[in-house]
Amino acid sequence: MPVLRQARVSDHGTIIACVPQWWGDSRAPAQARELSLLLPKLFLQFFSGTSLVLENEAGVRAFLIGFHAADNDEEAYIHFVGVDPKLRGQGVARRLYTTFFQHAADAGRTEVRAITSPGNKGSIAFHRAMGFTLESGDREVDGLPVHSDYDGPGQDRVCFHKKLAL
């Protein structure tokens, strides 16, 4: 039975090793490796208390890296989520998100934000199913509001927002 626990700094090596394996089915090997660059160790050094790991006897099976905003007391942010492809479609990501929402609400946070790329249709559908709304962007792509150059030149993003019920 998988156990959901708070992340630890010592999880970093395992998590970044999972990224190219778990995304290898949807990206070229170099692209999958590049994704791990979105997870420098600092995320676990400074946000392990708000991040989650799901593991069983086989090791890490899923994770959520998230944090509470330092500049305000209302917001929390989900930065990166990974689920072993063998567990996708079984409610694992939903469990990670609902646990993060509960911890954020317990800490007095009233809003959660997240982003994804406009081409990540699965992520967009999942966030909508989890009750996120899409924030207005500066243009539309395939009917989606997009924030141009959000993460740098050519790095457009869809931005999500969710109000938490306290």
Protein described:
The chain has 166 residues and is of the alpha+beta class. It is 29% helix and 29% strand. The chain contains five helices and nine strands, in the order βαααβββαβαββββ. The protein has helices at residues 12-22, 29-35, 42-47, 92-106, 121-129; strands spanning 3-6, 52-56, 59-68, 75-83, 111-116, 133-134, 139-141, 144-146, 158-163. A seven-stranded mixed beta sheet has the order 1-2-3-4-5-9-6, with helices on both faces. The protein has a two-stranded antiparallel sheet with strand order 7-8. α1 runs antiparallel to α2 (29-35).
Topology:
Blueprint: E1 3-6, H1 12-22, H2 29-35, H3 42-47, E2 52-56, E3 59-68, E4 75-83, H4 92-106, E5 111-116, H5 121-129, E6 133-134, E7 139-141, E8 144-146, E9 158-163
Parallel strand pairs: 4-5
Antiparallel strand pairs: 1-2, 2-3, 3-4, 5-9, 6-9, 7-8
